[in-house]
Amino acid sequence: MTRRIPLIARDLKRLYTGFLLVAVSLFLLCTYLTEFNPMVLATNGDAFWEFITEDFLPLALPKASRIPGIFSSVLVTLALAMSATTVAAILAFFVALFGSEKVSPFPRFAKAVRGFATFLRNIPALVWAFILFSSLGIGTGVGFVALCITSFAFMVRAFVETMEDVSQDCVESLQAVGATFPQRVSQAILPSCLSGFLSWYLYCVEVNIRASTIVGMVGGGGVGLTLFSYIKSFRYDIALTIILLIATMVIVVDQITGKLRKELLK
Predict the structure, then answer these.
(1) What is the per-residue pLDDT across 227-256, written as a single tens digit (0 to 9) for each?
(2) Is the dihedral of CA 97, 101, 107, 109 positive or negative?
(3) DSSP calls for 148-213
(4) Residue 114 maps to a domain
(5) The whole model's pTM is what?
(6) In angstroms, rounded to a whole number, what is the distance separating the alpha carbons of residues 108 and 249?
(7) What CATH number should be reported for the domain holding residue 256?
(8) What is the pLDDT of residues 150-159, one digit of tens each?
């Protein structure tokens, strides 16, 4: 009689089975609370597929007079993401110096700095855009400030973690010989953490290229606002062309920043 050897240990199998049951239970609970019925979506999906195949999928190029405006809005989106990330990175660097207990001259306030950054980070850029829209109106200023706030909060936390992971021997040596705080930063922190800072900066550029399109649709300017204007005018065919252009832009930026980050982390 041959003995079957299980591919997965019994304890792990029970754990995976329990996890699957919990996931299914949560799904059923959420569908009940939200009154969402997947069967209704499946049976009444004719209108959705009709919209996709007849209105959305057929491509149509915009008029020649509108093409320069679309491409200029794409460039505005790129400039918006780059400028907001750059300004946020500069501010985040100086604030992160006071958010690291190992580096800050006031270590007691480091937790407060990190907590403030965490609070800002937990509010999405889209929410900031809605908040700023009522005071600043429609324009790239709304998108710039919204992206700058979220990027600043994200990079403060990322820069603090980068500084915390670096060996503090050099910092302690400089502090022992009487080096000032700016001297410790320029001679120990920057040389050790610069590649990490740049890597996080490039990653944030990738994120903001996508986020700037969403923020633009609610009044933040750029290609998102152009896309939303075509959707409101029911020109879904031209909107699809703009979506494909946005996807191409995001893919190209991701490839470039990805290669740069790999070179920095070598």
Answers:
(1) 888 888 888 777 888 888 888 888 888 888
(2) positive
(3) HHHHHHHHHHHHHHHHHHS-SHHHHHHHHTT--HHHHIIIIIHHHHHHHHHHHHHHHHHHHHHHHH
(4) yes
(5) 0.77
(6) 44
(7) 1.10.3720.10
(8) 999 999 989 9
Q: Position of tokens 């923020």?
A: 215
User: Is 230 part of a structural domain of the chain?
Assistant: yes
Residue 237 tokens, joined: 């065919």
Domain holding 82, by residue range, is 67-264
User: Which residue ranges of the chain lie beneath pLDDT 70?
Assistant: 1-9, 44-45, 48, 55, 58-68, 167-172, 265-266
> How far is it, in rounded angstroms, from Cα 116 to Cα 119?
5
Task: Return the half-sphere exposure (C-beta side, CA atoms, 13 A cut-off) of residue 184.
Answer: 20
The rounded Cα 52 to chain-centroid distance in angstroms is 28
The tokens describing 64, both together, are 């020649």
**What's the total number of domains in the chain?**
1
Is residue 144 within 8 Å of residue 83, measured between CB atoms? yes
- 3 state DSSP class of 146: helix
Crossing angle between the packed helical segments 236-264 and 67-97, to the nearest 10 degrees:
40
pLDDT score recorded for residue 87: 93
pLDDT number for residue 167: 61
Residue 171 lies in a domain: yes
* Torsion angle of the four alpha carbons 140, 141, 142, 144, in this order, in degrees rounded to the nearest 10: 80
